[in-house]
Amino acid sequence: MPTEKLALQPVILEVVSRVLSLLLLTVALSGCASKARAPSPSSVVRAWSNALNAGDNQRAADLFAPDAQIVQGNLVRRLHTHSEAVAFNRTLPCSGRIVELRSRGRDIEATFVLGNRPASLCDGPGQRAAALFRIRQGKIVLWHQIPAPPAEPVV
Fold first, then answer.
1. CA distance 98 to 114
2. Contact yes or no for 88/70 (Cβ under 8 A)
3. What's the DSSP call for residue 126?
4. What distance in Å separates the CA atoms of residue 131 and residue 69, rounded to the nearest whole number?
5. Can you tell me the distance from the alpha carbon of 152 to that of 51, in angstroms, rounded to the nearest whole number?
6. What is the CATH number of domain 41-146?
7. Which residues partner with 134 through β-bridges?
8. What is the pTM of this model?
9. pLDDT tens digits, residue range 39-83?
10. Is 54:118 a contact under the CB 8 Å cutoff?
């Protein structure tokens, strides 16, 4: 009987070793997945501006969450679907070169200098415009056009 136990020990050790290896691998992989982070709010705003400036309404729309809220003056609406987000981006006549990004708690205020888009002429090239963005999990949940801050005087 003691000889049988000794003969089984290497087999048991091998099984335990493999189980522990699999457990460690699982823990390591799950740790890697949990460390993957959503893009920063400012990088989402920059990606949206780059897509808009390139005339890529699809890519710009990809950055909007379902049911994102749009506020322009007295107009408040929700973009329920991706196609509505594409249509919204298509209606924007101007590109916007980001000249300032400000973090305001969980919001980002972006100031742009307006220019022509590939498919449309801007109605106010060279003027400043601003929007407040709220980003959650890498998606725009609020796009709110706000008054642009005054330009810094050139000295």
1. 9
2. yes
3. T
4. 13
5. 27
6. 3.10.450.50
7. 107, 142
8. 0.75
9. 999 999 999 999 999 999 999 999 999 999 999 999 999 999 999
10. yes
